[in-house]
Amino acid sequence: MSGTDRTVSMTSTEETPSTPGWVESSLDAILATLPFSAEKLVPFRNAYLDCLAGCGRTEDLDSEHDACRKGLLLALKDGLNMDSETGRALEQKLEKLELDISAGA
């Protein structure tokens, strides 16, 4: 078997985009305050975490976080009919989470 016959696969030592470990539990606590079941929130939660993980470590990190947050809020409004009052409260909690992420970046 030559080197060109092998498929490339990730090993445990390769870096993949991720958020700090504490972010998932913090996000879960935030989402638990919403009037939706955890099961319904799973795809929205995962998409938001993926978005945050893809944010670079740049000076423009805040605008990247803004885009992730706005995407989540819109998806929840469209997908689960989240009302505007709940959306505003969630937005404030997510902004705090993102500030904590930025502080640790």
Automatic annotation (TrEMBL):
Residues 1-10 have a biased composition (Polar residues). It comes from the Bacteria. Residues 11-20 have a biased composition (Low complexity). Residues 1-22 are annotated as: Disordered. This is Uncharacterized protein. It comes from Acetobacter ascendens.
